[in-house]
Automatic annotation (TrEMBL):
It holds the Pfam family GIDA. Residues 1-190 form the MnmG N-terminal domain. It comes from Hirondellea gigas. Its cofactor is FAD. This is Methylenetetrahydrofolate--tRNA-(Uracil(54)-C(5) )-methyltransferase (FADH(2)-oxidizing) TrmFO. GO terms for molecular function: methyltransferase activity. Transmembrane segments: none annotated. The lineage of its organism: Eukaryota, Metazoa, Ecdysozoa, Arthropoda, Crustacea. GO terms for biological process: methylation. NCBIfam families: PRK05335.1 (NF003739). InterPro entries: FAD/NAD-bd_sf, MnmG_N.
Length: 197
């Protein structure tokens, strides 16, 4: 996802970002510079954000970036290992040894990327969530038949296999859409497909 969540200081997420701005957070500074319309949320242009973050980290004299496979975890210095679900088998085994496999989960929702050019503008409408803002979200309505077809395809879709250390524990606030759909035919209508813009 390209969203950093709400930017409103009336909630915890927005207030935290405002406090990070005051403290000079590099991530929030670059997010603000690369933001795209997203109603009350702070969302970024993914490629521009990534390029600016990479450039700033490369320029930082106290950070060494190594772009090669790490197969062992150094014991003599502090390191940040940011591999995510695409970690190689060797480094995954090292992390499993270090953590004894406790609390090691990559199971998360993946946000699909839909390009503007792929959307038939004759079939959509623009609206902001809860009618707050200038209509910055593209809404693609569905008939009941279209929704039923979508739901059935989603339920029957092929799933990516789990890694050896993964359990199907999901974070309720960021649940994969197919997991929501498995809870019932109408579940999506009260989640990501609720008619709130």
């Amino acid at each position: 996802s390209n969203s950093f969540g709400s930017n409103l200081i009336s909630n915890a997420s927005g207030l935290m970002k405002e406090e990070l701005r005051i403290m000079g957070s590099l991530l929030v500074e670059i997010a603000d510079k690369t933001k795209v319309p997203a109603g009350q949320a702070l969302a970024v242009g993914r490629e521009e954000f990534s390029e600016m973050i990479t450039k700033r980290l490369e320029e930082e004299e106290n950070i060494e970036i190594i772009r090669e496979e790490l197969t062992t975890i150094p014991k003599d210095k502090y390191v940040i290992i940011a591999v995510g679900p695409l970690a190689s088998k060797k480094i995954t085994e090292e992390i499993l040894k270090l953590t004894e496999g406790i609390n090691l989960y990559f199971y998360d929702a993946v946000a699909p990327i839909v390009t503007l050019e792929s959307i038939d503008q004759e079939k959509v409408y623009y609206q902001s969530r809860y009618d707050k803002g200038d209509g910055e979200y593209i809404n693609c309505g569905m008939t009941k038949e279209e929704y039923d077809n979508f739901y059935n395809e989603l339920i029957d879709a092929e799933r990516a296999p789990l890694k050896i250390f993964e359990e199907e524990k999901v974070f309720e606030a960021c649940m994969p859409v197919e997991k929501m759909a498995a809870r019932g035919e109408k579940t999506l209508l009260f989640g990501p497909l609720k008619p709130k813009g």
